[in-house]
Design brief:
With 173 residues, the chain is of the alpha/beta class. The model has no long low-confidence stretch (mean pLDDT 95). The chain has a five-stranded parallel sheet, sandwiched between helices. Helix 2 crosses helix 4 and helix 4 runs parallel beside helix 5. Helices cover 55% and strands 13% of the residues. It has eight helices and five strands. The chain has one domain: P-loop containing nucleotide triphosphate hydrolases (Rossmann fold), CATH 3.40.50.300. It is globular and about 45 Å long. The structure holds shikimate-3-phosphate (S3P). The site of shikimate-3-phosphate has 11 residues, from helix 1. Shikimate-3-phosphate binds next to helix 1.
């Protein structure tokens, strides 16, 4: 088994705060930040929604895996991922190889409220987004939990507080 890297990798459902907390962690630590959604968008020259519309979800997932492979071996980095990254079992291995995996979680209601503020999530453009969220969470929660080294509930915390908690927990491991 290859030695695991030293990146901090944020996983979790849409709206859990991965991108914002990732930026805060990068600011606090001075480490570079990489975001798989941004990498995939840059590769296609399209937004995530446009990629889903034009090329389909599978092409997006393929590019996510490629992005994780590109990041492997990166030392000292903050890596944020899309909420569906663990749907491919291979990605769970890649994510764990990168470093300490942090699962950001939040209650279903707060996730829905946060996600509803923006219309950039193609998977929730359904007739009943609330029911879709519930179903996606049911499938994904066990995947996040199985991959995570650390879990942080972001429901009542500021981005700064979440970032400090993560750094503390990593230091005390
Ligand atoms: C997705 C989450 C999104 C983005 C894409 C698919 C998902 O990222 O990767 O819309 O399957 O949960 P965020 O979790 O950053 O919103």
């Amino acid at each position: 088994m290859q030695e695991r890297g030293d990146a901090i990798v944020l996983i979790g459902f849409m709206g859990a705060g991965k991108s914002s907390v990732g930026r805060t962690l990068a600011r606090m630590t001075g480490l570079p930040r990489f975001d798989t959604d941004e990498m995939v968008a840059a590769r296609f020259g399209l937004t995530v929604s446009e990629i889903f519309e034009t090329h389909g979800e599978e092409a997006f997932r393929d590019a996510e895996t490629d992005g994780l492979r590109e990041l492997s071996g990166k030392r000292g980095a903050i890596i944020t991922t899309g909420g569906g990254i663990l749907l491919r079992p291979e990605n769970a291995d890649l994510v764990r190889q990168l470093g300490t995996v942090v699962h950001l979680e939040a209650g279903e209601e707060i996730l829905f409220r946060r996600i509803s503020r923006r219309t950039t999530r193609p998977l929730l453009r359904t007739e009943n987004p609330r029911a879709t969220l519930k179903e996606l969470l049911r499938v994904r929660l066990p995947l996040y939990q199985a991959a995570a080294d650390i879990q942080v509930d972001t429901t009542l915390l500021t981005h700064d507080a979440v970032a400090k908690k993560i750094l503390n927990q990593i230091e005390n491991r």
